[in-house]
């Protein structure tokens, strides 16, 4: 069967990664979580004192970019690839609300995007890949055979993210999570370089009222129509 490239873009916390992982497993494809790559660079910037609530030393981050190596390693038990920063597994560290509150600022820096987009294109060059993010169908793989654009109301997305963080044992409140989701939407859609937008040929899926199974079945149908 023909291997294709599946690009899944959309707003924060629309469940892109959940469905992308399921899909990759089902099809025997590689899954690439590009948000994790931007989060890894953000974590580096935080650890090196380059970004805080009142300061972001963009120049220093750009200067240090060659020292930042983001990679993935497949974890058989989990069934997906975890993200590493300079050889250290940081899968858990990058999912905090703290990293979420800075990541869109880091992702707006063109040099950061350039480095990560190049790596993403290499990771997907042989097709047979499900990649999720904000600019996959518009910039990373404009020729992807199937492009999906996921949406849901900000409130529904914030509830999902809030539950995820609470289940992990993080102490967060719903209002902060909602605010973060809305702030990231704003920065992601208004930045100059590769803003989040639906590619002309993407299929929009509003999953506000879809169960995970309904969503998966709908997407699989689209995949089968494309392959
Ligand atoms: O997908 P996730 O929510 O983990 O992404 C974190 C952030 O990384 C997004 O809010 C966005 O600012 C940035 N991002 C991006 N381009 C991508 C993937 C993520 O700008 N392809």
Automatic annotation (TrEMBL):
Catalyzed reactions: dCMP + ATP = dCDP + ADP; CMP + ATP = CDP + ADP
Annotated localization: Cytoplasm
Database matches in Pfam families: Cytidylate_kin
Ligand binding (ATP): 10-18
Alphabetic keyword roster: ATP-binding, Cytoplasm, Kinase, Nucleotide-binding, Transferase
Xref: NCBIfam families: cmk
PANTHER family in the record: CYTIDYLATE KINASE, CYTIDYLATE KINASE/PANTOATE-BETA-ALANINE LIGASE
Name the UniProt record assigns to this protein: Cytidylate kinase
Source organism (scientific name): Flavivirga aquimarina
Lineage: Bacteria, Pseudomonadati, Bacteroidota, Flavobacteriia, Flavobacteriales
Gene from which this protein is expressed: cmk
């Amino acid at each position: 069967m023909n291997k294709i490239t599946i690009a899944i873009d959309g707003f924060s916390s629309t469940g892109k990664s959940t469905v992308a992982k399921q899909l990759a497993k089902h099809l025997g494809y590689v899954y690439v979580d590009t948000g994790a790559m931007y989060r890894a660079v953000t974590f580096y910037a935080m650890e090196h004192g380059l970004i805080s609530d009142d300061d972001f030393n963009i120049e220093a981050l750009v200067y240090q970019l060659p020292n930042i190596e983001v990679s993935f390693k497949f974890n058989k038990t989990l069934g997906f690839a975890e993200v590493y920063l300079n050889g250290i597994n940081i899968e858990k560290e990058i999912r905090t609300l703290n990293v979420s509150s800075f990541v869109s600022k880091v992702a707006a820096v063109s040099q950061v995007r350039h480095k990560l987009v190049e790596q993403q294109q290499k990771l997907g060059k042989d097709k047979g890949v499900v990649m999720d993010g904000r600019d996959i169908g518009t910039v990373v793989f404009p020729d992807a055979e199937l492009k999906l654009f996921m949406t849901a109301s900000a409130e529904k997305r914030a509830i999902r993210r809030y539950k995820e963080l609470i289940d992990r044992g993080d102490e967060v409140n719903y209002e902060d999570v909602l605010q973060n989701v809305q702030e990231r939407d704003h920065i992601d859609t208004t930045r100059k370089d590769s803003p989040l937008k639906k590619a002309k040929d993407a299929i929009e899926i509003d999953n506000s009222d879809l169960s995970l199974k309904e969503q998966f079945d709908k997407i699989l149908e689209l995949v089968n129509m494309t392959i």
